[in-house]
Amino acid sequence: MKEVRMLSGFAVKAAPRIVPLAGQRVALRLNERRLLRILWTTAAVLIAVGFWGIYSKTFLPDFFARDLVWSLTYLNGETNLPALFSTLLLLLAAAVLGVIALARTAALDTYRSVWTGLTVLFVYLGVDEGASLHEKLIEPVHDLIKTEGIFHYAWVVPYGLLALTVLVICLRFLRHLPRATRNGLLLSGALYVTGAFGLELAEGYVHTLMGRDTFIMEILITIEEALEMAGVILFITTLLHYIRIALPDFELRVGLKER
């Protein structure tokens, strides 16, 4: 009930009293199939529209909003729809990894530090994708070791070493996982690395040989982005499957407490 008080001749309504609701819970349920369907569909649409934008800008005469569509959907662009989607994909993967890391830490699992490390790695990859941090390494690395040809995009050198280091560190961790999870993680990693590194090496060669503004380069960029998106979505799929089979009773609670 609201109270009305008189203050210097003015009627002031007191704020309604907040009654704590003890024991209240809100269940957040994830529809795995619907989420994955949305992710795959969004990726397919972005790749298709992005390639159409590249094709129309390269071969077709100008038409209404052509350059706008191209800028919003260019697959190698920054601060546009594909870049935003790729960033969110990596951060979603980091969130799922974080849930698993919490569960494994609570259970004092032997590999809890690996799950936590992978979470941190994917948070960084998400930030890197959004801010294009890796591209800022091209000139310093190029000046340091004079890369050219397939290593024209010199960031692949330190990042390639990082990827190899992560694989070596995770070998024993991968062996202990269920076969389906292990195979899913390896396949998703292979897709992502093929896109992020393999196609980048091919683009470096084409850039050196033919220049940057060629349709062959744009085809390689399209394949690269498609492989990266497919790799991350398959990675998320594998993690969700792992949660379902390995952590069937896992429950995440969120609460606040005073210090």
Automatic annotation (TrEMBL):
This protein's UniProt keywords: Membrane, Transmembrane, Transmembrane helix
Ranges that cross the membrane: 35-55, 83-103, 110-127, 150-174, 186-206, 226-247
Domain of life of the organism encoding this protein: Bacteria
Name assigned to this protein: Multidrug transporter
Natural source organism: Deinococcus navajonensis
